[in-house]
Design a protein that fits this description.
alpha+beta, globular, 47% helix
Length: 118
Amino acid sequence: MKNTNKITGLHDIENRIFSIRGLQVMIDSDLAEMYQVETKRLNEQVRRNINRFPDTYRFQLTDNEKIELVANCDRFRNLKHSTHNPFAFTEQGAMVKKCFAFSLLEDKDLITNLMERL
């Protein structure tokens, strides 16, 4: 994963929280970037552990929601022509996803650095 929009602090995290369907959520690619893993790998873990991610923890954006997200935020322009709609994670879903991110990280220094940021 190429990291061009490094998440470095609370302000960066706050700028990645969106209100969709009346919920405060983060998009899967932003969570993956924050935890320094590939979006694909994080979403694989969700599929493998789907019972831990009820609909109240995550949902997939509709086509219209994706179009609005792309229109309002330049960093999602690569989604414009994508056939895949991203997942949005609520606070509870993001916390469960964090656990999976730790299991995907191989570098102990990276885990220590991430834990210090949280």
